[in-house]
Structures are given as C-alpha cells and as structure tokens.
Amino acid sequence: MHTFTMRILLLLISLISLAATHPTYGVTLPPPPLDPSKPATSPYYPWRSRIASSANHVEKTTLYGLARTAHAQGHPHFATYLQHYLSNTGRDASISPDELMASLPAFRAEVHALAEFKARLAFQSLLMNPALNTISFSSFWHEYETTPEQSWDWFLSLGRFVYSVTGVVRVDETGEAVTVRYKVHVFDFCDWDGERDLIMGQFRFREGELPGLQVVGLAREFKMRGSGEVVVVEGYTPAKGFPKVNG
Asked: For residue 182, which of 114, 247, 128, 133 has the smallest C-alpha distance?
C-alpha cells in the first residue's frame, strides 16, 4: 500500500511539473461541429429494398477486382473506401486530414488560413477579457472540392467534402507569451452519387451504378470522418501570424 501511495504522489508531482513547463498541457480542444445534414438534393437509395440478382453479385465481385487494381495503380484510399462500401456494414470509416493536406497543398493552405483567422478572433477576445487566459475557437463546416489535377486518389475517394478547425489560444502567466493549438476535422458522406466515369486497368468505374448495390443490400453507404494531429504555434501575435505553409 505504501509503494502504491508513493507512485501516486510521484505521478502527481510529474503532472504538476509538466503543467508548469508546458502551459498548454491539459487544455482540451473543442470537438468538431455536429455532423452536417445530407444535401436536400442528394438521392435516396433505401438499403435492401429489392432482391439481389445474379448480375448484382457479379457486379460486386467485379468491383472488388477494381479495388485491387486501384490499389496497384497508386490509389490506395479509393481502393480502401470502395472495399468498405462493398463490405456492407455501413460503419463509419476513418480518414486522415494530415494525409489529405499532404496530398492537397491547396487544401492545406485553406486550413492554415482558416485556423489563423479563427485564432486572431480568439486572441482579440482575450484582449477584451483580461480575466481570461484561455479561450477556444471553432469554425463551422467549410466545403472543399478535390480535382483530378490535385490527386486522382482523393478525387475518386471524396470528390467534395467538408472540414472544420477547432482550437485554443492561451496566454501564459506573464501575459506576454501566447500559444495557439488547433486541429482540423474532415467529414464526408460516402454515397457514390456522383458522375465519375473512367477506365482503370481492365475495369470501368461508373459511379452512377454503385448505388444499385445498396438498393439490393450488397453494399452500404457510410460516413467518413477524422481529426488531424494537434498543431502548436508558439509565440503567436496577430502581426506575426502563423508560420508560412511550405509547398
């Protein structure tokens, strides 16, 4: 019992020390906004509302072959999400905003600009409320559309999706050093309701045909979501802003 108590005391001491040397440690960032609603114009495909035919089963097998070909041709995310659709679970699939930003510099620049804008507003709120040393910020969902020129993999995987940034601005005990911490969140409905049509190896991908498998209960739409790693900007001032985005 004595050993257990000593371990607890040592743990508390280490946490206090960490909080003292890292002022932003333990600050919780706001969660992403509530899931957006599907656009009113999105078609509705009731799952398993018709009996599957032998042709439907052949189509599903063919799409698994398309997914393998896509992966071999350098489109791993598209392959993964197509296989997830064909797995027929309807469970959410994860997406990495950090991988997305690495592949799409224009998207990374948009995220950077939005986070800096929200941080500036939060910093101004801190100046008007001297009793506070921390204030959080959260954006609503913003839309971004990928193109084949940016990335064929993400164009096929997502097309159009939404993103948000959430974070905190904190002033240290001296009232001089300001630290910003933020992360980006991404959300999309994987419902294959677009008009993408292309040849991939020996297969042809016609997006408009995929919802038919949902109707016969051989595949299922799902949501895609994910949050990036926390980005830390130390010594922030509105005049200095955020470090420039490379690439």
From this structure: 114
d(CA 224, CA 36): 12
- What does residue 122 show for φ and ψ, rounded to 5 degrees? -65, -40
Q: How far apart are CA 83 and CA 69, in angstroms?
A: 12
205/38 Cα distance (integer angstroms) = 24
Whether 203 contacts 69, CB under 8 Å: yes
User: For residue 163, which of 220, 79, 104, 222 has the smallest C-alpha distance?
Assistant: 104
66-91 pLDDT, tens per residue?
A: 999 999 999 999 999 999 999 999 99
Q: Tell me if 180 sits within 8 A of 168, measured CB to CB.
A: yes
Spell out the domain ranges in the chain.
Answer: 46-234
Structure tokens at 84: 């997830």
CA–CA separation, 220 vs 123, rounded Å? 44
pLDDT tens, position by position, 115-158: 999 999 999 999 999 899 999 999 999 999 999 999 999 999 99
What sign does the dihedral 64-68-73-76 (CA atoms) show? positive
What is residue 24's three-state secondary structure?
A: coil
One-letter amino acid at 233 equals V
Taking Cα atoms as reference points, which of 136, 237, 168 lies closest to residue 24? 168
A 10 A CB-CB count for 188 gives 22
